[in-house]
Every structure is written in structure tokens, then in C-alpha cells.
Automatic annotation (TrEMBL):
Biased composition (Polar residues): 12-21
Highest taxon in the source lineage: Bacteria
Protein name: Spore germination protein A1
Similarity field: Belongs to the GerABKA family.
Region Disordered, annotated ranges: 1-21
A Pfam cross-reference name: GerA
A single Gene Ontology CC term: membrane
A single GO BP: spore germination
Subcellular localization, as worded in the UniProt entry: Membrane
Gene responsible for this protein: gerAA_3
Its membrane topology: Multi-pass membrane protein
Record key words, sorted: Membrane
Membrane-spanning residues: none
Record PANTHER family: LEUCINE ZIPPER PROTEIN 4, SPORE GERMINATION PROTEIN
């Protein structure tokens, strides 16, 4: 695929990283209290406190699975609370970086007074997104009428239901110093070239950028030659096209909040393809691609 060298951090950047000290839990809570959508509940006479951002958290999980249990019983430890609340993937931690990341994305934080620096993080992320609809750009007369949406979990679901294989592998990264966007690298293990996966993953990890809001940001940052008229990534809004590319040994990249995916590496021939080509007899699809190619050349 592409050659790539890991960027060395300058001495100035290293000095800045060392000087940036982690905020304490108290300072983090105080900074959030400036926002009116940050909610604080005190239970049992300040013995137990619940924090969450109401615009990011699912109120149903809070009111059905968390508050009733905390109101009815008295707990001496966060592990005891964890055993009674019927929610998966809860975490007890003192890591302020992890706490800040999870709370800002919708987790509920539970704190006991006698263990002030240790909290329980309860997944309660509100997954508000539009429904899956028909493709608007890559409309196809034949084939599926589904397109990606802005929710990365929904998009991965659209791929997995078309490829229910244990070899389908998803690696997740957090990219963007400010946005901390979820980015998924998707490939079919045993089919893809491992070097391509390693190169894509390394390039994504090396991104030092404040915001990654859309996958188009990624193409501009990790592209080999931004002056080339031929893109190295194929941008598509169709799950069936991504699945076809994965079967061919390509790597897919998805960004949470982007209603489309990138596949790479790509070839010039692929750029003249259309969604309908996958559902036509091979000789007709070949003729149509040649017609498009000749139309561009001549």
C-alpha cells in the first residue's frame, strides 16, 4: 500500500504535554456545573451522589435502572452498587481522563462520599439518530435501498447483518484532541493484507488534529499526494458496496457522525463503477464501465 513514517514529536510538544496536568475530579465537576444541562442528584444525605449530562444521557436508563436501586438500598461500596444495577459494562475507576471522556459522552457517574476520588461509570448514552433511509447520492434501480446514517453503531450493524462472519474485524480508535471522535477500521481477517491494516491504523493513530467531524477530514490528512487527481479512498454511502469491497480484501474506515464510509486502497477502474454494476451480469457491467471510461478519455 503506502509507505509511512511515524511523525516524531518536537521537544516543544513534549514539554507542553508534560506541563498539562490532569484535572482532579473536583475541578472536573466544578467546570461542568457551569452548564445548565449538567445534573447532580444527592441520595441518602450526601452519602451517594449521581452526576450526568441530561442532553447526552438516556433518561430511561437513569429512571428505571439506576435511581430506584440507589433510593431503595444503602451501599457501602461502588462494587456493591455495580452488582445490583442491571446495566452491562459498568466501570469503577479513579482515572480522571477516563471519567471525563465517559461522562462527556453520556455515562452516568456515581460517587460515594467516603471514596471521593473513585466513581462508578454507568453506560447510558442517548443514541438519538435518524432512521436508515434510501441512498440519496448513489441511488440504484436494483439492489438494496439502504444507506448509512450518522450513527456509527447503526452503520456497523448494516455491515454485520450482510456479513455475519467471525472474521469480520472492527478496531476502534478515538481521534481528535477536542472532538475525540470514534473511528472504526473494518476488515475481513484472512482476506485483507495485514500490511494494509497496519498502515491504515498507524496513520490514524498519528493524526494530531483538534477535530475529526467527518471522514473527509481523514482523506485530506492521511492521503499520500493531495495534488493527485485520483483519490486513494473510495467514498460511499452504501453498505452493500462496502461489503463487496471488504470481500475483495480492502479496508473500510468509518467516523461516528458521518453518513458514509471510506474504502482503500482503490484503483482507477473502481472510480468508474456504479452501484448497479454489482447487480448486473458481468459482461453488461463491464460494457457500462468501459463506456464511462471512454466518455472521460474522449
Amino acid at each position: 500500500m503506502w509507505k509511512w513514517k511515524r511523525k516524531e514529536k518536537s521537544s516543544t510538544e513534549q514539554t507542553q504535554q508534560k506541563s498539562n496536568q490532569k484535572k482532579s475530579l473536583t475541578e472536573f465537576i466544578q467546570s461542568l456545573q457551569k452548564s445548565e444541562d449538567f445534573i447532580r442528584y444527592s441520595l441518602g444525605g450526601e452519602e451517594c451522589t449521581v452526576y450526568y449530562i441530561k442532553t447526552m444521557s438516556d433518561s430511561k436508563i437513569l429512571n428505571r435502572s439506576v435511581l430506584p436501586i440507589l433510593n431503595d438500598e444503602t451501599f457501602q461500596s461502588l462494587e456493591g452498587i455495580k452488582q445490583h444495577i442491571p446495566v452491562e459494562n459498568m466501570t469503577v475507576t479513579e482515572d480522571i481522563t477516563l471519567i471525563q471522556e465517559k461522562v462527556m459522552f453520556g455515562y452516568i457517574m456515581v460517587q460515594l462520599h467516603h471514596s471521593a476520588q473513585e466513581v462508578l461509570l454507568i453506560p447510558a448514552v442517548s443514541l438519538e439518530s435518524r432512521s436508515v433511509s434510501i441512498p440519496e447520492v448513489e441511488f440504484s434501480v436494483v439492489g438494496p435501498k439502504e444507506a448509512f446514517v450518522e450513527n456509527i453503531n447503526t452503520n456497523i450493524n448494516l455491515i454485520r447483518k450482510r456479513m455475519p462472519l467471525p472474521q469480520l474485524t472492527i478496531k476502534e480508535l478515538k481521534i481528535g484532541k477536542v472532538t475525540k471522535s470514534r473511528v472504526a477500521v473494518i476488515f475481513l481477517d484472512g482476506v485483507v493484507d495485514p500490511e494494509n491494516v497496519e498502515t491504515v491504523t498507524q496513520r490514524l493513530k498519528d493524526i494530531e488534529y483538534d477535530q475529526i467531524i467527518d471522514s473527509s477530514f481523514i482523506t485530506q490528512i492521511i492521503d499520500d499526494n493531495s495534488n493527485s487527481p485520483f483519490p486513494q479512498f473510495l467514498d460511499t454511502e452504501r453498505p452493500d458496496r462496502v461489503v463487496s469491497n471488504l470481500i475483495e480484501g480492502k479496508v473500510a474506515i468509518m467516523v461516528d457522525g458521518a453518513p458514509h464510509a471510506l474504502t482503500c486502497p482503490t484503483t482507477v477502474v473502481e472510480l468508474f463503477g456504479a452501484s448497479d454494476d454489482y447487480f448486473l451480469p458481468w459482461h453488461l457491467a463491464t460494457v457500462f464501465r468501459l463506456i464511462r471510461l471512454f466518455a472521460v478519455i474522449f
